[in-house]
Amino acid sequence: MSTTENYRIAEKLLRRPLRPGELTVGDKVRPQWMDGGRRFWYAVRDGDATRFLVVDPAAGSRVPAFDHRRLAAALASASGQPVDAEALPFRTIVLGAGTVEFFALGEYWRCRLGDYACERAEFTPPANPLAVPSPDGKLAVSQRGDDLWAHSPGDGREWALTTDGAPGHAYGPGPESPGNGTLLRKFGLPHLPPAVAWSPDSAKVLTHRIDERDVRVTHLVEARPADGGPPRTHTQRYAYAGDPEMPRAELVVLDVAAGTLVRARTEPLLAPMLSPVMGRSAWWAADGRAVYFLRQPRDRRTLSLHRLDPESGEVTTVLSETGPTRVEPNQWMYEPPIVRVLAGEVLWYSQRDGWGHLYRYDLASGDLLGQVTAGTWAVRQILHVDETARVVYFIASGLVEADPYRRTVCRIGLDGSGFAVLTDDDLDHVVTLAENLEYFIDSASTVDTPPVTTVRDWNGSVLVELERSDIDRLTATGWTPPQRFQVKAADGVTDIYGVLHLPRGFDPARRYPVVDTIYPGPQVNRVDPGFDPGGMGIDADPLAALGFVVVAVDGRGTPGRDKAFHDASYGRLADAGGLDDHVAALRQLAETRPWMDLDRVGALGHSGGGYATVRALLDHPGTYKVGVAMSGPHEPHYFNLDFTEAYDGADNPQAWTRSSNVAIADRLTGRLLLIHGELDDRVHPDHTLRLADRLVVAGKDFELLIVPGAEHMFLDCLAYVRKRCWDFLVRELLGEQPPAYQPVPVSLEEVAGQLFV
User: What is the pTM of this model?
Assistant: First the structure.
């Protein structure tokens, strides 16, 4: 039964990513580097308490950053207010030479760690968060209007680096379509920091001039602005699939001191979603004598590497690869390219042998020197290249037999010899590189094994253990770990994987409705292989707390496996990440789990998952009876050019038509709730309204919620929107009246604490 207590637990589980320390302790370590990366400190939240620790990997030490009790006593003495050593009134610190500084009790404090004397101090505001500092810290570049300006913090000087910027033709910003303008306005920010990359010697910056002058202009209407005034229109340049004009980025190099500008002597790069600098597909050589960048044509079937001379602007081609489908620098669309330019050679990622591996090319001639990695597994990320030892360290997936998605840290010689696994276990490894690249922080877990976080050297040896996660409060809610499963896809041959969450208070003698929490990719996975459920998994645990069996599946067409597995989605976005595979998985799971009631199956998804939820009801009405679709891009013709063309083809309007939920809306037989934010500038609300229009014309019964002022993620109304989702599923699948539960609103401060940590 979905009681008020179940709703309370569901809300706690929903907020779990926003409130570290409330349900889990020590599961995430966020290092704050010191001494150029030689040491770092981190904080561990435990309920209201926060522990601060300093780690010296070379010494193998992990010690408190200060004596918490002595500091609490000193702060209490200086402030005249009680201070609990177990719940210090601050969450972040600035460690200096023998001092610690922080905001607490409404004031800024500096405490000496020798005699533990605290005094009020003058707070020096941090550098402009919208400026990009130089590596030596002596200069910074920021955006002002449509131009870039330099600033010298030492003497306060500032000067213009460009003067001819114009609306739609500005220096520094990325394209407007993914700019999150609605969210930025909520935080009071005029824009993001500019896309600039400093040269290693802090003398020059690489940036771009974005050209969106002829890109389609779209509009969002804000019914009731925060000031209570009349409706307000927000315009946004946003290229649709098939549009002749899209954002283009002209690479430029600025000499900050001299004030000179060098333009790349080549055609601007296509930049429909990310600028090349933001997407890290344009970067400085280690010696600062060249800029390298990747280029792809509109059909994505060629990927080429180019060299830009920052003095002359001359551009030369280093190497190029062409294939019958997408040639991807990384299967995950928005992760950095798996390419490294070394002294005299290039490490190049390719899926030409059916997997994702590293190849070595001569930098001068572009000739292939050899394949570096090989096997029925894939390289996920290059971590570090030791050119002296001629060794590359990287993350691979597919080396763990039990789960091909788990990540493993490996090394191999640049000549392809000496392959070794550094994290020799069956766990999933999430790596944070040290600032000085001399070690890495490793978080090892599985979906049902909480993380253990250590510091490792490049031999894989553990230098110091940091944290073993405590999940006692999580399990006390009635939560149980999800079960990883392997079943066959709809073809009866291909293995697919997913996770299953048991309902709170599970009783195998009962029969439970099932909710498929869908995200179809193809640019990211629905299921992460580690303990952290990831952004796509925030809905699973709350739904299980309400009394549902919850399933998540990565069907054919999603990333993380071989090229053929991913290419199953190419030109087939209409399959929504292999919905037939989802149906096959549900049936196989239920064969050995009679408590799964396949007569009561629903789907819930957000964004691409919202699209797939509707598609599930339209294409598989015999399986999916109920759906909740949030922020879905239901009409690919009028969606972001970058996504639609990358995965359905750049000149394939027939595929876009096949992918349209609007075109087949009259098929609906199940119960459907559509939710969209009024100011969603990632997936415009007209997608849901166009679908609703066709449902009305077809005489279909459905529910619609347009959330005033909300952006794509519903971040500042998260609890409200999710409760509306829960209520609908409880009514339609459990057959119960939801309790009169009032969720606590999510504050922007709470969201910002995790977004900008």
Answer: 0.96
